[in-house]
Model the fold of this input.
Amino acid sequence: MNNTLNIALPKGRLGEGVYDIFESLGYGCEGIKDKNNRKLIFENEELQIKYFWVKPTDVSVYVEHGAADIGVVGRDILLEYEPDIYELFDMGMGKCRMCVAAKNDFYDDRGRTLRVATKFPNIARTYYASKSREIEIIKLNGSIELAPILNLSDVIVDIVETGKTLYENGLKPYEDIVDISARFIANKASYKFKNENIEAILEKLRELKK
Ligand code: PRP
Done:
């Protein structure tokens, strides 16, 4: 079996932070942070590791299907898509929370179906089902904060980090749903067959967090 460890990293600030940690643990890969090239795959043959930059929402797809052995992904994605993977470690980075937010003067009329705009329909459905609240989901792909302002929805279910986006758009957090942070995940077969390599990384991550 090919012993190279394939690692899916989320493109963007979180992924770069994750890579910096991996590099500090001895898993560096030359050229990976060079902004001038558009390469998506980087290999360090000596260390037998290969990194891929993928869209944050796709990390768990690569890992679930075994195209990547391990990866780092936000808990929001794991809760939304429920991939069949092992969640092995809380990286303690990319901390934010999933919230219900609404306009400052929002009043919840429980006699009416609540219109919920979100990128996370599964999380929203599960949350409101637990409260026995009837809702209609309006699925959007970004700029969710616009929905209540334009009366497309009553509330939004979205990620809040600093709260700045809500504040600047006249919205406020109304209820907290769940805390989010970046998680280290592994493909189930890879965890079995490349256990030593994966455990070695995990051990170093645990050591670093102490
Ligand atoms: C996320 C989220 C909020 C914003 C929250 O958006 O959907 O809009 O970040 O951050 P804040 O609390 O620090 O202001 P993202 O950057 O992922 O863009 P998008 O939802 O429009 O795709």
The pocket of PRP is lined by residues 142-145, 158-165 (CB under 6 Å). The chain has eight helices and eleven strands.
